Amino acid sequence: MLFPFLLGPISPALAQQIALPFEVIFIPKKALFNTFQLETTVSKPSGPGPFPLVIINHGKSLGPPESQPRYFPGWAVRYFIERGYVVFMPMRPGFSKSTGSYVAAGCNIESTGLHDAEVVAATVAFAHTLSYVDRTQTLVVGQSAGGWTTLAYGAAKPDPSVKGLVNFAGGLRMDSCRGWQLNLAKAAASYAENTQIPSLWFYGDNDSYFIKDVYSEIFTRYSKVNPQAHLVAFGEFGQDSHSLFGSKDGRAIWQPHLEKFMAQLGLPVKVIYPQYQPGK
């Protein structure tokens, strides 16, 4: 059952999305010696489906991962629900109420991304066991560290249903690691070598995590190997362009580009559930 309400305290930003239906489930992810339970928010339109699938991968806030709230980028979720998609938002191990521990592979940015991509694989596999999920059409999206996870998943033998990757300000910033910017760019090129899926990238010039020189080098190295990548460099946004994806005003910037990208992939873009549009 999908509940149009939340239990317990909620943030003001999340309260604006209170009309969106959702439920919280736990998805099993097998590891070498045990099985983790991934706290996952699922939001879908009314009806039996089957609905095309969207996976949205979260970033990492400051502070302990277990203190990070369950991820629910309402304005983006609303965009997909309007168009008849079901959206899965898994929390990686150690984040929020997911079991396990957050693991970063030292300064190996490439390895960290591939490790996190296993969560996407587990989520897609689980979603495909559900009758309301269309097993033939999937879009994988991510913001910040989740954008990096999305790119890594594209290089990690993604499910055949995955049509495209969408990266909002993706990357891993490791200030304690010397030369992390170059390592990030090299890892992106390595991912590109093993990716056959088109990707859409969004970066801004006043990003507090990845300045223009950094994201430009990441994209240049990736797209040189995989020319199916497209960059939307949208300039400055608010106080910090890193926040574009999760903000109400940001949607006006990314929606036209995402809609065009999805249409090119043959994914549905027509609004069929207008009751979920902003202000409805």
Gist of the model:
The chain is 30% helix and 20% strand. It is built from seven helices and eight strands; from the N terminus they run αβββαβαβαβαβαβα.
What's the CATH C level? Alpha Beta
What is the 3D form?
globular
- How many individual helices? 7
N/C terminus separation: 22 Å
CATH architecture: 3-Layer(aba) Sandwich
Count of structural domains: 1
How large a portion of the residues is in β-strands, by DSSP E?
15-25%
The named CATH superfamily: Alpha/Beta hydrolase fold, catalytic domain
Strand order of the largest sheet: 1-2-4-3-5-6-7-8
What would the CATH topology be? Rossmann fold
- The radius of gyration is 17 Å
Total strand segments:
8
What's the helix-strand series? Answer: HEEEHEHEHEHEHEH
Give the mean pLDDT. 91
- Helical content, roughly? 25-40%
Low-confidence stretches: 1-18
Report the structural category.
Answer: alpha/beta
Biggest sheet layout: 8 strands, mixed
Assembly annotation: single chain
How would you describe this protein?
There is one protein chain. The chain has helices at 12-15, 74-82, 109-127, 145-154, 180-193, 212-225, 251-264, and strands spanning 23-30, 35-43, 51-57, 86-90, 133-143, 162-168, 199-203, 229-233. The protein has one domain (12-266): Rossmann fold (3-Layer(aba) Sandwich), CATH 3.40.50. It contains seven helices and eight strands. Helix content is 30%, strand content 20%. Helix 3 (109-127) packs across helix 4. With 280 residues, it is α/β, with parallel strands linked by helices. Strands 1-2-4-3-5-6-7-8 form an eight-stranded mixed β-sheet, with helices on both faces.
